[in-house]
Amino acid sequence: MLKEFKEFIARGNVVDLAVGIIIGAAFTAIVNSLVADLINPIIGLLTGGTDFSGHYLVLKGDVPAGASLKAARDAGAAVFAYGSFLSAVINFLIIAWAVFLLVKGVNKLQSAAVRKKEEEAAPAGPTQEELLMQIRDELRANRA
């Protein structure tokens, strides 16, 4: 059983998955900071400082006028927190866009590396002048 476990862990897929999870967790912190510290303030400027996350409708219960979403929930009211949902959708779209740009950049770097490797591995063919000389020599040989 221990031998099988060692073989399972030694497989490349498990190690790759573990590395992916660790890098994903680290990348999450970067993306969250990008959204919270850089992009959301710009969106706030464009929307006049509006923070959608506190917008809600009271479906049932008594809530004092102007109460925050947390206060409404703490009061036991049933709330339709459309602002929270809208903020989550906006954050998702921003994160998805950032990940898209990252993947696009990585793919571009990988394809450039593959092209460079193929160019280095490709055998050097004859130059244009060498081909023309071969054609000339073939024509001369056929005339004779």
TrEMBL record:
Species the sequence originates in: Paracoccus limosus
Keywords: Cell inner membrane, Cell membrane, Ion channel, Ion transport, Membrane, Transmembrane, Transmembrane helix, Transport
Name this protein carries in UniProt: Large-conductance mechanosensitive channel
Subunit note: Homopentamer.
Transmembrane stretches, start-end: 12-31, 79-103
PROSITE patterns (alphabetical): MSCL (PS01327)
GO molecular function, one term: mechanosensitive monoatomic ion channel activity
Cross-referenced InterPro entries: Mechanosensitive_channel_CS, MS_channel, MSC/AndL, MscL_channel
Cellular localisation: Cell inner membrane; Cell membrane
Function: Channel that opens in response to stretch forces in the membrane lipid bilayer. May participate in the regulation of osmotic pressure changes within the cell.
Family indicated by similarity: Belongs to the MscL family.
Cellular component per GO, a single term: plasma membrane
Major localisation: membrane
Topology of this chain in the membrane: Multi-pass membrane protein
